[in-house]
């Protein structure tokens, strides 16, 4: 019996090394990585710039705590604010922690405006994390039910429905912020409509609300810009990111601008490990590498090659309900059961993921070659062909 709590349904494979877009298991079998550690290794595996930065920092200093200045933290904060237009950054260890910081910031923002019970508007099908505040903001009853009572203070509305937000605000004068993912990841890889996001920006400006974007999954080059909001043309007041920021080294960030940047002060929030020397050295290497080569510009060509290979090899196009997403957040919704897709792909040497029940989620790294992207797409199509023809066969 394993000594690890069974909080994950793990696949029967263990990896021992990686290189670029490939992972190798303990039997030295090679797999083409279409998951990137769930949108984390945007630079692929064993990237030399990241390896050098982390090893160099590890040899001198790892941790002192936030009681003292941390030069790599200040350097990364400068890179992020310069690249995004944000003004202040709070560093933490994960996306959920970044969203917790954003929730606290929004509540404090409300209290400063004499709103004693501040409310945050969130969306159906959203996913913001599994810590208690982020879980309450998440729109998935299945993962909330066993951990009730949920934290109050959230108003949930359908996505892309401005009328629902106007109605909710009319019924509740204590709204202080709107929190959304520009591209919903766990909710089925659904990009929010750009016009809808622009209307949210106007609405927040009119009502002195904070517009908060959760770019934990969509950020750090994945969607064809450093952050998806830059491609969609709508700038938030609060920006949360993590995952690809450290390319596997745990780091999260809650960024803010304007009035939101001055809300939190000494003692209002904190973390022992957040923004440590190793994490921020990794983050600096990632952002510098992405920016120097504008690697986010590879997102669309890789997507095109992948989907081209997929459609060309797919024998049963009628099983695909929709292909959606932005850049290298790709969702392929099927109208057939997906329970065998992941394991069948694994047996074929492909790493893919299924989310929201029937949507294949592809999150390949930005360093994947176009040839490998085509192989991933065609290989996935062959998996679907096989599952369609043998729905009862377990590999």
Task: Describe this structure as you would to a colleague.
There is one protein chain. The chain is an alpha/beta fold. The chain folds into two domains: 15-33 and 296-389, Aspartate Aminotransferase, domain 1 (Alpha-Beta Complex), CATH 3.90.1150; 48-293, 3-Layer(aba) Sandwich (Aspartate Aminotransferase, domain 2), CATH 3.40.640. It is 37% helix and 18% strand. The chain has 13 helices and 17 strands. A hairpin with a 5-residue loop joins strand 8 (183-184) and strand 9 (190-191). Helix 2 (48-58) packs antiparallel against helix 10, helix 3 (71-84) packs parallel to helix 10 and helix 11 runs parallel beside helix 13 (370-389). The longest helix has 20 residues, at 370-389. It starts with 14 loop residues before the first strand and ends in a 6-residue tail after the last helix. The relative contact order is 0.17.
Using brief descriptors, characterize the structure shown:
single chain; 395 residues; alpha/beta; Aspartate Aminotransferase, domain 2; 2 domains; four-stranded mixed beta sheet; 18% strand
Q: What shape does the CA trace take?
A: globular
Taking all Cα atoms into account, the compactness measure Rg is: 21 Å
Number of domains: 2
Low-confidence spans: none
The biggest beta sheet reads: 7 strands, mixed
Terminal Cα separation, in Å? 24 Å
Q: Beta-strand level of the residues, as a percent range?
A: 15-25%
The level of helicity is 25-40%
Average predicted local confidence, pLDDT: 97
CATH domain topology of the largest domain: Aspartate Aminotransferase, domain 2
| Structural class computed from helices and strand pairing | alpha/beta
State the fourth-level CATH superfamily of the largest domain.
Answer: Type I PLP-dependent aspartate aminotransferase-like (Major domain)
Question: Which sequence of strands runs across the widest sheet?
Answer: 4-12-11-10-7-5-6
CATH class of the largest domain: Alpha Beta
Instruction: List the secondary-structure elements in sequence, H or E.
Output: EEEHHHEHEHHEHEEEHEHEEHHEEHEEEH
| CATH A-level architecture of the largest domain | 3-Layer(aba) Sandwich
Q: What's the total helix number? A: 13
Total beta-strand segments: 17
